Amino acid sequence: MVNLESKKLEDFLKFLIGIFLLLIINNMASRAFFRIDLTEEKRYTIAKPTRELLRNLEDVVTIEVFLAGDLPAGFERFQKSIRETLEEFKSYAGGNLQYQFIDPATAISEKSRNQFMQRLNSKGIQPTNLFATEEGKQIEKLIFPGAIVYYGGQEEGVMLLKGNLAAGSQERLNQSIEGIEYELISTMRSMVMTDKKMVGILKGHGTPSQAGMAGLKNLVRDDYLIRDVALGDTELDKIDVLMVIKPTLRFSESEKYEIDQYLMNGGKIFWLIDALRVSMDSLGGEGSIAAPYDLNLLDMLFQYGIRINNNHIMDLNASAYPVVVGNVGDQPQIRPMPWPYFPLINNFGNHPVTRNLNAIYTQFISTMDTVKATGVTKTPLMFTSQYCKIRQAPYPLNLNQIREGYNPEAFNAGPFTVSYLLDGTFTSLFKNRILPDNIAKESFLTESTNTKMIVVSDGDIAISATNPQTGEAVPLGFDPITQQQFANQDFILNAIAYLIDEDGLITARNKEIKIRPLDKIKVQEGKLKWQLINLALPLVVLILFGVVKLLLRKRKYGRS
To answer: What average pLDDT does the segment 211-236 reach?
Structure first.
């Protein structure tokens, strides 16, 4: 016969052993932290560089997200995705990351609400006037789809609603969801970095004026150190990325040698080169002749695997240019009209630099070809539309062409590639050639380490335009004629980040979240059926179960 006291003792010991095992498992799990993402596209998995940055935070990062309140379904999904991303961040940063969601519309008074919204606007968080239809009702609401990040006494605004404006509203929201991680973590990195990388902008050789470079420098200065670089500078090796923007004067062989050896030593180069010279001041009169620049760079780029052709692309997908279309009395009537020489680039390669970008504003852009270069991989980044034609240099150009109009049937030659990423091991232009005078042959390298460069066949994408009324420089990528802001800034920053980023943080832009929309017609047709299945069927099954059980009980106990 079993002793009752010994049985109780046995059960108590088993209970203690179970508690002890749970404590050991919990302790081991806390030391070996892991998460499993079972979604097909790994939407909850954040990039390894992101995890490393979050784990190494030395102070608390506070994030205020201004997307709260009563929102349409699409923006509720956007808000939920932001919250999920921040929760993932917090799981790695621990107590060093705090966040909250704030609705700017809940301010006590209209004055304080306006002041609050002006503050958000000053941080680059632009309002979006939201129009949506839900259940047959038109909804209008002003929202601020952005956040402010606080760290170590600093605060930076980050716009979270981005994406391609040419896409549909749901697709653009999806693109913004894909970019949440990168937008937040890149802002955090710029705030926590103490050792910033150096971006050098080549000066001389007829490159743009300081006024033209003001927008670019203001943009880059937030994330990197920046300095003007003249060839012959003994500290060129301290530059992490060298930007060569729209030179107009010839390079000597010794200057080309210096750029070549900078690349051979692992330097990164961002080329933004115009192939042809056009005088904009002459377009309204007798016109101008588009003729090639004599830069003496063609052989160098050819050696590295790329060729910029001496032509201009005319694209029907283009911005406008103001022209005089008539007179009212003695006053000329000026109207912006389509100008195919200013293509809007809205077709991109599948790469982190250009993923989910809005259109890029260009002026007088040229076609590009790749040539064989052993050890170099060429990745296309930007394309024109298919509605293009080519003007080979030299050719005459004047504004009368706008007034005369264009035959759309002639624009059928595209699309053309206008930007490439080249990466790998490059061969020196001066291999098997006589070196320039006064060059120490001992330091000459014939082949580079693994490095990369980006080439764009237009220098104007990095130059600030001038407001024709005030004469002041406008933000980079802003078209003062159409009053539209294009994605030139995003492209420039992404390109520099990709060239300079050693930890690969920009790979977070590769995240892809697939849209799986419901068929609205099928939903409407099958609405009643599925409502009955989800609401009535469980009740019917429960009732049948109760009836069957009752009959079985009656049958069993009725016999006895």
So the answer is: 86
